[in-house]
Amino acid sequence: MRYSIGDLARRTGLTTKAVRFYSDRGLVPPSGRNAAGHRQYDDAALARLGLVRTLRELGLGLAAIRRIVDGEATVADVAAKHAEALEAEIRVLRLRHAVLTAVAGRGSTPEETRLVHELARLSAAERRRLIDGFLAEALGDRPELAGVARTLTPELPEDPSPGQLDAWIELAELTRDTQFRAVLRRLVDQHEGGLRRGLAAEVRDAVSPALAAGVDPGSPEAASIVDGLGRARGELRTWLGDVHDPRRERYLELLAVINGWAAPESLAPVLDWLTAATAA
Question: Would you say 39 and 4 are in contact if contact means Cβ atoms under 8 Å apart?
Answer without folding.
Answer: yes
